[in-house]
Write a structure and sequence with these properties.
Distance between the termini: 62 Å
Number of helices: 3
Order of helices and strands: HEHEEEEEEEHEEEEE
CATH topology of the largest domain: OB fold (Dihydrolipoamide Acetyltransferase, E2P)
Helix content: 10-25%
Radius of gyration: 23 Å
Number of strands: 13
């Protein structure tokens, strides 16, 4: 191999190593942003004062979107008890956030089990329903009996999905992809993966006297 070829090979190798290093450090591996479970973060005193990522399930009823900064609590995914971390989050929460959502938050861990976070993403579960026994939005509006368990299928109205908390409108279902009859839905849980405007949803819950569905479950309609 002549000197020119050897120098060219060395140059290409340096570039490749530089790109690899940028990816490595940019991913957080070189910034101290280690990804930890709640159990790991809560039991490792050496992490206090450091910037880390923590992944955990949002504890039902622990959050209120209207607080600023937003506060909620998480515990290790899949557990119903154990250590908790109180999150004080400054930023916009995803509309898919809710009870039992798996949240991955980045911030500085403080003593006492509190974390000040400025970045959050959510992992939404894939929830599907066949829609068997469900009625349409139009059929529900025509029904006389309310405060009864129901299943209703409809389309997510464009730009209606929001995150306001317990007892407030979460989204609107319509009878057609472009509009038609519509009903409001209250829901504080985690929205299914792939929730986008116009997607067909199957909602289970109670249709109350005010014409609002108080939902206990929301799933995407499975393809036939």
């Amino acid at each position: 191999m002549n000197n020119r070829a050897r120098n060219r090979l060395i140059g290409v190798t340096v570039i490749i190593l530089g790109i690899a290093a940028a990816v490595f450090f940019g991913s957080g591996a070189g910034t101290g942003a280690y990804t930890k479970t709640v159990d790991e973060a809560a039991n490792d005193a050496s992490l206090v004062g450091k910037r880390i990522k923590v992944s955990g399930s949002v504890i039902a009823g622990s959050w209120d979107k209207k607080t600023n900064p937003m506060k909620f609590r998480i515990r290790t995914e899949g557990k119903t008890s154990g250590p908790e971390i109180a999150i004080v989050y400054t930023g916009a929460a995803p509309n898919t956030f809710g009870n039992d959502t798996v949240a991955i938050v980045t911030g500085t861990l403080e003593s006492g089990g509190t974390m000040k976070a400025d970045d959050m993403i959510t992992k939404c579960p894939s929830k599907y329903s066949s829609g068997t026994g469900a009625i349409t939005v139009t059929e529900l509006l025509k029904a006389q009996a309310k405060a009864q368990p129901i299943q209703v299928v409809g389309y997510l109205k464009a730009k209606s999905l929001n995150l306001e908390g317990q007892g407030t409108e979460r989204f609107v279902l319509t009878s057609t992809p472009t509009g038609g009859d519509e009903i409001s839905v209250q829901f504080a849980g985690s929205m299914p993966a792939g929730t986008v405007d116009g997607v067909q949803l199957v909602v289970g819950g109670e249709y109350d006297s005010t014409g609002v569905v108080a939902a206990s479950s929301v799933a995407r309609l499975a393809s036939k």
